[in-house]
């Protein structure tokens, strides 16, 4: 399991090749390289679980978030592809799509102007049935990660699991 991820806001028209490369190197290439290393370590035992971090941003259009969202869509496709490839070797690969408070989320919020932030907060309030806000990493996300990493999830692979208070279900 790895949690490395990078988000930088920019209007689509202002995205530079440097920004694109930076985000994709961390979010996509970082996922690929850590997954490959984990697979190589797990393959001799013919068992293991890899949990990637995707994002609902990989499914939705968000203001000033095209680079991050598209990088997470790439992580989703990578997860599903290697789950199929590595499953016969006993390696499970899934991804969580958390909507939890993080410093990266706080930074994204601070990039929005006051009107954008008010609209975003109202959208979140209306879109998350369980509480109208992002979850807590310790109490809402950690138990799901433990489950996916454990043998209790031995028959689950290639899944993108939103941990988002129901946000995905109302889309």
Describe this structure in words.
The chain is 49% helix and 11% strand. By secondary structure, it is mainly alpha-helical. It has helices at 17-42, 66-86, 103-111, 114-127, 137-149, and strands at residues 48-53, 91-98, 160-163. Strands 1-2-3 form a three-stranded parallel β-sheet, sandwiched between helices. The chain has a single domain (12-166), classed as 3-Layer(aba) Sandwich (Rossmann fold). β1 (48-53), α2 and β2 (91-98) form a beta-alpha-beta unit. The protein is globular and about 55 Å long.
Q: Shape, please?
A: globular
How many E strands?
3
Q: Note the total helix count.
A: 5
The largest sheet has its strands arranged as 1-2-3
Annotated CATH homologous superfamily = NAD(P)-binding Rossmann-like Domain
Structural category is: mainly alpha
Level of helix content? 40-55%
Q: Could you name the ranges where pLDDT drops below 50 across 5 or more consecutive residues?
A: none
Tell me which CATH architecture applies here: 3-Layer(aba) Sandwich
The top level CATH class name: Alpha Beta
- What's the helix-strand series? HEHEHHHE
* CATH topological fold name: Rossmann fold
Average pLDDT score:
93
- From the alpha carbons, calculate the radius of gyration and give it in angstroms: 17 Å
Distance between the termini: 28 Å
């Amino acid at each position: 399991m790895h949690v490395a991820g990078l988000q930088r806001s920019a209007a689509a028209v202002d995205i530079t090749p440097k920004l694109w490369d930076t985000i994709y190197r961390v979010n996509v290439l970082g996922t690929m390289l850590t997954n490959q290393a984990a697979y190589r370590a797990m393959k001799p035992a013919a068992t293991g679980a890899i949990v990637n971090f995707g994002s609902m941003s990989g499914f939705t259009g968000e203001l000033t978030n095209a680079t991050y969202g598209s990088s997470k869509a790439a992580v989703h496709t990578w997860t599903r592809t290697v789950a199929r490839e590595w499953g016969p070797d006993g390696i499970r690969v899934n991804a969580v799509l958390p909507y939890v408070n993080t410093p990266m989320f706080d930074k994204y919020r601070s990039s929005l102007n006051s009107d954008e932030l008010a609209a975003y907060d109202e959208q979140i309030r209306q879109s998350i049935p369980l509480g109208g806000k992002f979850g807590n990493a310790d109490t809402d996300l950690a138990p799901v990660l433990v489950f996916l990493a454990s043998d209790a999830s031995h028959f689950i692979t290639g899944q993108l699991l939103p941990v988002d208070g129901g946000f995905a279900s109302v889309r």
